[in-house]
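cron nightly-structures :: item 1 of 1
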Amino acid sequence: MERLSLTATHAAHFAAIALGHVGREYPNKPDHVLAGPEDARTPRALHPIFYGSYDWHSCVHSYWMLARLLRRFPDLALADEIAALFDRQFVADKVAAECAYLATPESRGFKRPYGWAWLLKLAEELTLAKDQRWSRALAPLAEAFAQRFRDFLPLATYPVRVGTHFNTAFGLAMAIDYARATGDADLADLVVATGRRWYGDDVACPAWGEPSGDDFQSSALIEAECMRRLLPAAEFRAWFDAFLPDIAERRPATLFRPATVSDRTDGKIAHLDGLNLSRAWCWRSLARALPPDDPRRAVIVAAAEAHLGAGLPHIAGDYMGEHWLASFAVLALEA
């Protein structure tokens, strides 16, 4: 079977989906604390950039996907529309309003760590864009979220190992990319040290809790993918050998079975399509970290393709998945 990868056809489809919802304000699920009646405002008033896509974090990673597709496929038919959107949205006054929202005491935990991670991933992608105006405009907001990580990680005694937005391994995996891309050595050192502290001694992961009914990440595989990014290659392989020692025998078995999605109109159950895509992303990335003659590679690649095949047909169709799944499809197809 030919290995699927990100194509111009995928890019055109995914870009059209995202352009259809990043500016769609409703329905909307705000993550907003009201300190008084004056805080009862619309999503667009609260977040002049990231008010669409059903929720703030999905809007952020949809912008990331658009920036990624624009850079990968500059001749995309929708390239001018994407650039025009960025010109309208990545401007000083709108960025300042997003920063002001973060500065309120009630917003200390806003979107921690998932939204933090995706905002930094977007900022990283914009640093690679041909037009640097967008990166310069977003820089104050990126720095605000980088500071969130600097303040929070030393206080976080324990990791969060769930398969949803609160997973801390996902946060570190994205934050390290930003830190390295921007040359923020202090942040990179803190992220690596935190990953070692949280996960360095983990062995024989049973993955018995996967999948939960609303998972869109594998707590086992995203931890492994996080450590792949954080550790030197040889050290990672030793850690991975101990963390998932029975991969060649396809154990833990739950990691090799794509999730069943019974109702794609239910936002939580629809998360399981994302689980299939994010597992495909992690499995593909982990396969690359192993030597070419490692017998586990074939097992891992087969698992990745099975999960990708289960998730990819369901990117669009119902808004509960359509407002976010394409971003994880890009991660999986590019891995």
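cron nightly-structures :: done
The chain has 15 helices and no strands.
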